[in-house]
Amino acid sequence: MTLYSMKMRASRNENGKPVHVSGAEKILAQKEIHDNASALIERALCHSKGSADFINLKIEEIRPGELSYVEALPFTTRDVKTAEEGRAVILELLDKLGIKNGREILSRFSETYDMRGAMLLNADTLERMEPDTERGIRATYMDAEHSPERSVCNDKNHFQEAIVLASKVISAPHIIAEICMSDDPDYVTGYVAAEAIGYVRITKLKEKGCPDGGRIFLFRGSSEDAKETIKYLEKQKVLVKNAPLSPC
Ligand code: PML
Ligand code: MG
Ligand code: MG
Ligand code: MG
């Protein structure tokens, strides 16, 4: 069966500057294309970050041999009461992973808030490895493996989209962990993911109403290695097997 990649990104002009509103990724059978396209456009027009005034919808056929499969990371949830406690859990997990510089890494988070993509940060030297640090690296071309009968849902499933993205990111060469805080003002749960700990949800990383958010991909290797990592993250088409729909 021929599969297609569908990508949507939406923004709104604020004071002459395009501000990211929403984005999504799907890998679909042909018969799923129409309904999913409408649902993604609807999502962009009715987003909690405001209605988009620019929507880009891109559909590409995936050629034979271009697709690979990875298993979803196992997940756990760490319940915390405050954002401060949440940040302490991030530091604890980085420490458990043997990643030094946890505090320095966290202090770089605010640099991601205005980026469309993620920061690719060398965990040892704290050097940023993205060719364009304003844009960052976009982890794209991924979806949960599913039957073409999957129901089309208008609402963003933060959890499933994030576990699919994290499973692809962690399968990338030279990536040792990912840290994410949602840029959705309504969504305060974030996560740390790595091969050794799986996908660890942290129930509060910011206050409700706060539009800040972003991702840091932690990298270990040379600048030659970074090219391979970026190519995989931005170009390799990946279906994630057994991705759970909800954390409950
Ligand atoms: C986002 O969609 O902006 C990131 C969502 C993080 C999801 C955390 C979770 O619920 O597991
Ligand atoms: Mg962003
Ligand atoms: Mg890896
Ligand atoms: Mg978002």
Helices, strands, pairings?
Elements: E1 3-14, E2 17-29, H1 33-45, E3 54-62, E4 67-71, E5 75-78, H2 83-96, H3 102-107, E6 119-122, E7 142-144, H4 158-171, E8 175-181, E9 190-194, E10 198-202, E11 214-219, H5 223-235, E12 237-241
Parallel strand pairs: 4-12, 5-10, 6-11, 7-12
Antiparallel strand pairs: 1-2, 1-3, 8-9, 8-11, 9-10
Bound molecules: pimelic acid and magnesium ion (3 copies).
What does this entry look like structurally?
The protein has 248 residues and is an alpha/beta fold. It folds into two domains: 3-62, no CATH class; 70-241, no CATH class. Helices cover 24% and strands 31% of the residues. It has five helices and twelve strands. The protein has helices at 33-45, 83-96, 102-107, 158-171, 223-235, and strands at 3-14, 17-29, 54-62, 67-71, 75-78, 119-122, 142-144, 175-181, 190-194, 198-202, 214-219, 237-241. The strands form three sheets. The protein has a six-stranded mixed beta sheet, sandwiched between helices. Strands 2-1-3 form a three-stranded antiparallel beta sheet, with helices on one face. β1 (3-14) and β2 (17-29) form a beta hairpin. The longest helix has 14 residues, at 83-96. The radius of gyration is 17 Å and the shape is globular. The mean pLDDT is 95. The site of one magnesium ion (MG) has 5 residues, from loops.
